[in-house]
Amino acid sequence: MARYDTEQDMAILRTNILTFLFLILMLSMSIFPGVLSASAERIRDIAEFEGFRENRIIGYGLVIGLNGTGDKGTATKKAIANMLQRLGITVRASDIKTKNSAAVIVTASLPPFPKPGMRVDALVSSIADAKSLQGGTLLLTPLKGPDGKVYALAQGPVSVGGFVGGRGGATVQKNHPTVGRIPNGVIIEREPSFELGNGEFRLFLKNPDFSLASKVAKRINDMAGPGYARAVDPSTVIVKVPVEYADTPVEFLSRVQELQIQVDTPAKVIINERTGTVVIGEKVKLRPVAISHGNLTIEIKREYTVSQPPPFAPESAETVVVPETETTVKEESMSVVELSGTTLGEIIKALNALGVSPRDLIAILQALKAAGALRAELEII
Question: What is each CA distance from 281 to 36, 267, 286, 348, in whole angstroms?
Fold first, then answer.
C-alpha cells in the first residue's frame, strides 16, 4: 500500500480526487441532461394531444330507500308513477308517498378513449326538497351526452359522507347530505366517436405561451428530425408522425409525451381575499420602495348598569336599566420600512419585517402593484 508522508503528496491526492469527481459529474450531466434540471417538465404535464379529453354526461334519476328524508313535491310522484308504468304497474301519482324517495341529477365524466364495460364514478345531487340522500339507492339511470345519445348507465348505493340528526329545532348536520357519490357506479355502454389523426396531430399547451410553444416544437424536432413539429400559435404545435412510425403512431406519441422541456414560471402573485391566502411566485421581484403601514382600531363597548331609587323614595320611583357606551380609538404609531428584493427569499424577509396580518399584507401588495414597485402579475381569486 502506498504511503503519503509529505503534505505535497497529500495535496496531489486531493487534487486527483476532486478532478475525478468533477469528471463523473460532467459525464452524468451529458448522459442524463434532464436529471439535474429541477425546472424541466415532461410534455405530457404541460400539453395534451387533440382528442385526449374527458366528456361530460348527465341524467335524471330516482333515489329510493331513504328514511323519511325524501321529497315532498308532486314532480317526484309523477316520476315514480311513470317508472312504475314502464314496469307494467299502473298507479296514480296522487296515491304515491315520496318521503322515502328523491329526484336527483346524476353526472359523470368519461375518460379519454373510453371503452364499453369500463366503470367510472357517478355524482348524485338532489334537485328537490329532500333533506338527505343517506342510505339511498339510485335506480338504473341512463346518462346522455350533449348529442342526446345514451353513453352510460348508472346505478348503485349512494355514499353521502355526511348526516343529519335530531328532531325539531335541535338538529346536527355534517357536510352536505344532499350530494353523494357512487364509486364505479357508471358502466360505459357507448364509445364516443373519435379517430386518431392520419399522420398528423395537434398538441395543445395548457398555458399558452409563444416561447414555450417554440421550445416544444424545437425539442420534438431534436428527437424526430427537422420539420416534424411546428408551432402555429401560442397554444398549438402540429406534430407529424415519421415514416418509420406510420404503423405504430402510439409509440411515437408516447416518446413525444416523455420529452422534457425547460419551463419558465411566470412572475405572479395569487391573492384570495376570502381566506386571506397569499401565494408569491419564484420569479416575483420588488423594486426598492418605502412604505408605512399602521392599524386603526375602533372599539365600541356598551355596558348596562342598574339605577335603584334611594331609601324612603316616593312610590313613583322605579328601578331602571341605564346603558353606558364607551368608545375607544387606538391607532398604532407610524413606521417607515424600506422594501426591496430580487429573489423570493429577500421579498419574504422584507414583508416579514412589517409584521402585518395576512389581510394587511393583501392591502400592501395591492398598493405596491399600484405604485409600480411589484414586478409581477397580481391575480385575485
Answer: 22, 6, 12, 11
| Burial annotation 99-111 (CB, 10 A radius, 16+ → b, else e) | ebbbbbebbbebe
Burial class (CB in 10 A: 0-12, 13-18, 19+), 15: exposed
Interatomic CA distance for residues 207 and 218, integer angstroms: 18
91-93-98 Cα angle (round to 5)? 110
Residue 1 Cα to chain centre, angstroms: 63
Tell me how far apart the alpha carbons of residues 95 and 283 are, in angstroms, rounded to a whole number.
68
381 pLDDT exceeds 70? yes
pLDDT value for 32: 45
Given this model, what pLDDT does residue 207 score? 86
Identity of residue 364? I
Q: Which tens digit of pLDDT belongs to each residue from 156-179?
A: 999 997 767 666 666 776 777 899
Return all residues near 203 (Cβ < 8 A) that are at least 6 apart. Answer: 43, 47, 48, 49, 50, 216, 229, 236, 237, 238, 239, 256
* Radius of gyration of the chain measured on its C-alpha atoms: 34
Q: Do residues 98 and 76 lie in contact, with contact meaning Cβ atoms separated by under 8 Å? A: yes
pLDDT digits (tens, 9 = 90+) for 119-162: 999 999 999 899 899 999 999 999 999 999 999 999 999 999 77
pTM across the whole model: 0.63
Q: How confident is the model at residue 295 (pLDDT cuts 50, 70, 90)?
A: low
CA–CA separation, 132 and 284 (whole Å): 47
Checking if the pLDDT of 285 tops 50, the result is: yes
Residue located via cell numbers 296514480: 92
Per-residue model confidence (pLDDT) at position 175: 72
* Contacts of 207 by beta carbon, 8 Å cutoff, 6+ apart: 46
The Cα-based distances of 130 to 9, 64, 70, 165 in angstroms read 87, 11, 4, 14
Domain boundaries, the chain: 55-163+172-188, 195-262, 269-309+318-380
